[in-house]
Specification:
Layout: E1 15-19, H1 23-35, E2 39-43, H2 46-56, E3 60-64, H3 72-82, E4 87-92, H4 97-105, E5 110-113, H5 118-132, H6 150-162, E6 169-172, H7 179-188, E7 197-201, H8 207-215, H9 232-235, E8 240-244, H10 251-263, E9 265-266, E10 275-276, E11 280-285, H11 289-294, H12 300-306, E12 309-312, H13 323-338, E13 344-345, H14 347-355, H15 361-375, E14 380-381, H16 383-390, H17 400-419, H18 423-430, H19 434-443
Parallel strand pairs: 1-2, 1-3, 3-4, 4-5, 6-11, 6-12, 7-8, 8-11, 13-14
Antiparallel strand pairs: 9-10
Length: 454
């Protein structure tokens, strides 16, 4: 297996998706923008632009307004639905005031008339990229997420598009899927990347302690409070606050959190005054919050406050193609931590890992790899070690001949059961002559008498 080393990557070019049904103008725009060191994907209609979104992962879209099938406003609305936060600049030769008003009211970043002034175009592109948080962006924001899965790439594309906004995000997924890593990726890809990233887990502490961690407390507020403490909202001011497993939040604190989100304000310690909170909120849950709402355990109004953008992160069982890549990454990570030689897995051991069930997801896989490395006495991790870690016995696929024999024996048994051991009738059902049928029964050690009613 090839070692996987996660290192900071060089700054990449901004990716622009340009859409125009005029081939000549499309070519001119592409040449101009590439000359300014932009990575340009050019397509001739709105449908092609939508198809390119997940593949290209653009940082900005420039589109003509008047196009057949789907015009620029229709494309803008589709982009807003699929990729909240992705900025769109609209170009048109019909530079009327109603066009400009409609474009800007629909959420376009800018509206430019053709023929487009080169400097004005470049200025608007720069402004849009700066607002989206791209400025000086690298691929470091996603470096902790090891994947080649198309499903995960789609999620990362969504993450990159929403990072430039302050929209609240709710990430759903099973335990161990990497919800916190995805939240960190949103923070790193955003304009808040230089500010704090603060986490709090609602399922890991008592209610009074959780309240003080969230909102702060004054010394003596409860027995454990030995000093004044700012809450995580104040600590994360200007940055991002990750509220993990928000479904575990007690109802009383749900109400308090809702008030903060509604007013975007908190009370400082020892004061009746309020201060504004400038914090991006991301929350996670491994529980079905809509089911909790139905049973009265979670407030619906809080759910809609937090769930502005919804991301479902797939389980490891849905991205098995990532398992060899993750194993290589964990082996490299362990070697760096211990200063020891990097281990490798026997091919059969990797096959077993890929085919195993992973209820604990990526976290469980890392634990298995660490256990295997700790227990192996060889540079090569054997299939037996993997079997022991997973709690399974020796596993192998049967040969073709073995599988065929098993099928034949089961088939013959079923026919004998149906005919209650009548060989002549069973042979007719199997469309074999009686002599051949007897030979099959003998080969598979089946006696017709065992199937006759007594």
């Amino acid at each position: 297996m090839t070692p996987i080393t996660v290192t900071p990557q060089a700054k990449r070019k901004p990716r622009l998706l340009v859409v125009d049904d005029d081939p000549g103008l499309l070519r001119l725009l592409t040449i101009r923008l590439r000359a300014e060191n932009y990575d340009v994907e050019a397509v001739e209609n709105g449908l092609a632009a939508l198809a390119a979104l997940a593949r290209v992962r653009p940082d900005l879209v420039l589109t003509d307004l008047r196009m057949d099938q789907m015009d620029g406003i229709g494309l803008l609305k589709e982009i807003q639905s699929r990729a909240p936060g992705l900025r769109v600049i609209i170009l048109t030769a019909h530079g009327t005031i109603p066009d400009a008003v409609q474009a800007t009211q629909s959420g376009a970043f800018a509206f430019l008339t053709k023929p487009v002034d080169k400097q004005e175009l470049l200025d608007q592109v720069q402004k849009a990229l700066k607002v989206s948080g791209f400025a000086d962006s690298t691929e470091d924001w996603r470096a902790e997420i090891i994947t080649r899965s198309s499903v995960m790439e789609e999620k990362l594309s969504q993450v990159h598009m929403i990072a430039g906004t302050d929209a609240r995000v709710m990430i759903f997924g099973e335990s161990g899927t990497g919800k916190e890593l995805l939240a960190r990726a949103i923070h790193k890809a955003s304009a808040r990347r230089s500010k704090p990233f603060v986490t709090i887990n609602c399922g890991s502490m008592a209610e009074n302690l959780l309240e003080s961690e969230l909102f702060g407390h004054v010394k003596g507020a409860f027995p454990e409070a030995t000093r004044d403490q700012q809450g995580v909202f104040a600590t994360a001011d200007g940055g991002t606050l990750l509220i993990e497993e928000v479904g575990e939040l007690p109802m009383r604190l749900q109400i308090k959190l809702l008030r903060v989100l509604q007013d975007a304000q908190i009370r400082p310690l020892g004061s009746n005054d309020v201060i504004a909170v400038n914090t991006r909120i991301i929350s996670t849950s491994n529980r079905d919050l809509k089911q909790l709402i139905a049973t009265g355990q979670f407030r619906e109004d809080l759910f809609y406050r937090l769930n502005v953008v919804h991301i479902d992160i797939p389980s490891l069982n849905r991205r098995r193609e990532d398992i060899p890549l993750l194993v290589a990454h964990f082996l490299e990570k362990i070697a760096k931590e211990t200063g020891q030689q990097r281990h490798i897995y026997a091919p059969e051991a990797v096959e077993l890992l890929v085919g195993a069930d992973w209820p604990g997801n990526v976290r469980q896989l890392e634990n298995v790899v660490r256990q295997n490395v700790a227990l192996t006495t060889s540079p090569i991790v054997s299939v037996e070690l993997v079997q022991a870690a997973l709690g399974v016995g020796p596993a192998r696929l049967p040969s073709f001949d073995e599988a065929r024999d098993e099928f034949t024996r089961n088939y013959l048994s079923q026919i004998l059961q149906i005919t209650q051991g009548n060989v002549s009738q069973a042979a007719r059902l199997a469309r074999r002559n009686r002599t051949d049928f007897y030979k099959l029964l003998a080969r598979h050690a089946l006696s017709p008498d065992e199937f006759k009613l007594r």
